[in-house]
Amino acid sequence: MATTAPLVTPAASPVGVELYWLPLGAGGWFVRLNGRIWEAVHARLEHRRPLALYHTALVVRVPEGRFVVENCWPIPDTAGAASRGVLVEGPVGSRRMGRWRVFRYEVRCWRDGTIADADEAVASPQRVSGDPAVARRLLELVGSLPTPVWGRDELGTGEMWNSNSVIAWLLARSGLPTGELRPPAGGRAPGWQAGLAVAHRATPAVAA
């Protein structure tokens, strides 16, 4: 993805969709370190400088309430899934390993939920819609997300599926324009294009 910083519009309405750009590994050194190593290897292979990596999440507000939509791994526990609004789970690494909780990811549609690293978000929130119909449509789509293996390119998009793929898929399938959405300057969001590619293969969720 290009690295032009997005324009951030402060939330002016209680209804709509807001996008958060979260530094990968914010609040946790292990994920951050591994992300930097992964990006250093890819930058060397692609003959470019390493960039900051971002993970994305959404806050969706409708008249009925406020919801956090986020793809998370590892899963903290299975007993609390309902309280976190978990609607979808998928395998990490391989489908065979997905039988164990540590190798599964979850997608939350969490009423009154929190984004753990929201205070470290950059150029956020980015308001992408103020239309309540679009916001409701996006929430309805969460339960129908595809669940390919996290970290692999099972769907043949040329890019691995991950948390950014989930958010990009939801935005595109909701009928929102995604062409102008960019991570903050000097950063990139691996997996974003995979989500867009899969969303555009399917029959559009709404009329153009």
Please, could you describe this protein's structure?
By secondary structure, the protein is α+β, with helices and mostly antiparallel strands. It has one domain. It is 23% helix and 23% strand. Strands 1, 2, 3, 4, 5, 6 and 7 form a seven-stranded mixed beta sheet that branches. The longest helix has 17 residues, at 29-45. Residues 1-12 have low confidence and may be disordered.
Overall number of domains = 1
Helix and strand element order: EHEEEEEHHEH
Instruction: For the record, give the distance between the C-alpha atoms at the N and C termini, rounded to a whole number.
Output: 24 Å
Whole-number radius of gyration? 16 Å
Short description:
By secondary structure, this protein is α+β, with helices and mostly antiparallel strands. The chain contains four helices and seven strands; from the N terminus they run βαβββββααβα.
Q: Which descriptors would you attach to this protein?
A:
208 residues; alpha+beta; globular; disordered N terminus
Topology of helices and strands:
Elements: E1 16-23, H1 29-45, E2 52-62, E3 65-72, E4 86-91, E5 104-111, E6 126-129, H2 132-141, H3 163-173, E7 187-188, H4 192-201
